[in-house]
Description:
Oligomer: single chain
Bound molecules: nicotinamide-adenine-dinucleotide
Largest sheet: 7 strands, parallel
Mean pLDDT: 97
Number of helices: 8
Order of helices and strands: EHEHEHEHEHEHHHE
Low-confidence stretches: none
CATH superfamily: NAD(P)-binding Rossmann-like Domain
Number of strands: 7
Strand order of the largest sheet: 3-2-1-4-5-6-7
Structural class: alpha/beta
CATH architecture: 3-Layer(aba) Sandwich
Amino acid sequence: MRTAIVTGGAGGLGRAICRKLSSDGFMVYMTDISEDKCMNAIAEMQLENVQARKLDVTEEPDWIAIYDDVMAEFGRVDAVVNNAGVNIRYDIEECSVENWDRMFQINVRSVFLSIKHVLPIMKAQGGGSIINISSVCGLVGHRYTNESYTATKGAVTLLTKSVASRYGKFNIRCNSVHPSTVETGIVNKFLSDPERMKERIGEVPLGHLGVPEDVAGAVAFLTSKEAAFINGVQLPVDGGTTCD
Ligand SMILES: NC(=O)c1ccc[n+]([C@@H]2O[C@H](COP(=O)([O-])OP(=O)(O)OC[C@H]3O[C@@H](n4cnc5c(N)ncnc54)[C@H](O)[C@@H]3O)[C@@H](O)[C@H]2O)c1
């Protein structure tokens, strides 16, 4: 059975990604800041072949533990989806050094630790797929989004390309996915303002926001055999937002 680890799995996009990968036949490890959060999500969605694990993505020992766990149970890690992320919304002029560093800890250190510890496993097993959830803000500066979020997502974009370029020779594919606004926990409160909702819809050529399943579909494609020669791409899931 193929195995996949999804971080931030109990959140809006994470849930949809876990559901899609389990329906595609993966044994999925849904991980998040607490195991209870994952267990509740799994129970609510009545998911099969999904296990709950606590994984704080900023903590190196948690990464070592999850990979040890999956290797002990299944002997391989076929896919890892680095999805956990936050936006502490401060414009650069109001952003404290602590908030700036916290953004990099959660959004970038996480991806570094994930990749650092999965590469030896994937090298030994003859390949694997790493998928990093960046954002449209990892492709372009975005007038409605603060600098710290954009800087972290840009870092994820180039970390992806670096790993794709240097580890492709081990049959390890590393790609990133770049959603525009999708209604989930990270943005729902903010979108309750009708003006902001209008603003966000207005920037999408397709004329509506995406749903978590749009992102999950892109992730599933990148894990699939059909994507066997796709390495180092930045796949926007944005209804054309970044075309202007
Ligand atoms: N929703 C959007 O519009 C959108 C757009 C572009 C990119 N993204 C990116 O997609 C990813 C998922 O976002 P979402 O919309 O599902 O957000 P969400 O807030 O619904 O879920 C994020 C999840 O990450 C978890 N998390 C936070 N800190 C963590 C930590 N230290 N360790 C482990 N887990 C932690 C949270 O508990 C939560 O379950 C993020 O990286 C986000 O930046 C989202």
